[in-house]
């Protein structure tokens, strides 16, 4: 009767499969010497020595108890036959060749990246939990929350448009003026004009020359009466002092463009501050003249 070959332990097979994916398992390893004793367990594969100890944490299955040697069977001739020895199979060896281009800092890099990723995930999770708790405590309407988010997305565009309108705006108003303006100066008069007598004027000792057909009087002293309403041409040459308070009441129209004032620079600066955020939310944005805002 021929003894069946011993199958490989599934636990050892799984450990070999895991070891093939670990970079340290590809480093050269020292093999454990096989026992020279001839026993039924000598045919089982032995695992290689694990220097880095990464496989020690895996669960191990207890070695199967050795099978008792079968009693020698008598052959057909009546003699005792020799016991059959199990065929020994060579122990499988893991690929000990180091991976090409493998660097020593790769495990540290992956460890650091994993820690950073885990930290970011924890922070995001905490933020989401806080937001959910806040919404629950404040009893906020989700529709209002979504509308607030939409309003926040439209906020940069509204700010940029209003800053542009403020840059192009102008101040148009009427300024009422009511004041008493003092007037004080000397008025010089030197001109010819006509005056009208408001009443009868008597002139005494006037030299009168009268030439008529029957009477001639030359340079005779007499008294003359000028009636009211008589127009007399005169020559004015005098200085008139003026000192008086003049009341003034009027509306002064004012039109001041802000682009011509010192407010123009702050408005342009505010547009430059909002432009990057506006371009992120709306890359195709244009100004009031139809020119693209984003470069």
Write up this protein.
With 295 residues, the chain is an alpha+beta fold. It has a domain at 8-70 and 79-102. Helix content is 30%, strand content 26%. The chain contains four helices and four strands. It has a two-stranded antiparallel sheet with strand order 1-4. Strands 2-3 form a two-stranded antiparallel ribbon. β2 and β3 form a beta hairpin. α3 (142-168) packs antiparallel against α4.
Short description:
The chain is of the alpha+beta class and 295 residues long.
Spatial order of strands in the largest sheet: 1-4
- Using only C-alpha atoms, the radius of gyration works out to 61 Å
Largest sheet: 2 strands, antiparallel
Q: Give a count of the beta strands, DSSP E runs of length 2 or more.
A: 4
| Shape field | rod-shaped
Low-confidence segments, ≥5 residues, pLDDT <50?
A: 30-39, 48-55, 61-98
Query: What string, H for helix and E for strand, traces the elements in order?
Result: HHHEEEEH
What is the number of helices? 4
User: Overall pLDDT, averaged?
Assistant: 75
Helix proportion range: 25-40%
Percent strand: 25-35%
What would you call the structural class?
Answer: alpha+beta
Rounded to the nearest angstrom, the distance between the terminal CA atoms is 89 Å
């Amino acid at each position: 009767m021929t003894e069946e070959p011993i199958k490989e332990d599934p636990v050892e097979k799984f450990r070999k499969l895991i070891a093939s994916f670990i970079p340290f398992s590809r480093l050269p390893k020292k093999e454990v010497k096989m026992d020279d004793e001839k026993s039924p367990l000598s045919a089982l594969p032995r695992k290689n020595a694990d220097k880095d100890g990464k496989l020690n944490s895996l669960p191990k299955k207890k070695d199967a108890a050795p099978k008792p040697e079968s009693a020698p069977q008598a052959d057909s001739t009546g003699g005792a036959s020799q016991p059959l020895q199990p065929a020994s199979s060579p122990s499988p060896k893991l690929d000990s060749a180091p991976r090409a281009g493998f660097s020593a800092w790769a495990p540290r890099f992956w460890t650091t990246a994993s820690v950073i990723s885990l930290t970011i995930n924890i922070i995001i999770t905490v933020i989401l939990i806080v937001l959910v708790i806040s919404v629950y405590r404040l009893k906020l309407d989700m529709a209002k929350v979504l509308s607030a988010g939409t309003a926040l997305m439209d906020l940069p565009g509204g700010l940029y448009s209003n800053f542009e309108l403020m840059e192009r705006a102008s101040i148009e108003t009427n300024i009422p003026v009511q004041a008493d303006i003092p007037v004080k100066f000397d008025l010089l008069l030197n001109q010819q004009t006509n005056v009208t007598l408001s009443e009868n004027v008597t002139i005494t000792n006037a030299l009168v020359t009268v030439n008529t057909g029957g009477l001639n009087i030359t340079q005779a002293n007499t008294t003359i009466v000028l009636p009211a309403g008589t127009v007399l041409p005169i020559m004015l040459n005098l200085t008139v002092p003026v000192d008086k308070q003049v009341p003034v009441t009027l509306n002064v129209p004012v039109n001041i463009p802000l682009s011509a004032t010192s407010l123009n620079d702050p408005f342009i600066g505010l547009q430059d501050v909002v432009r990057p955020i506006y371009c992120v939310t709306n890359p195709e944005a244009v100004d009031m003249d139809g020119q693209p805002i984003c470069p």
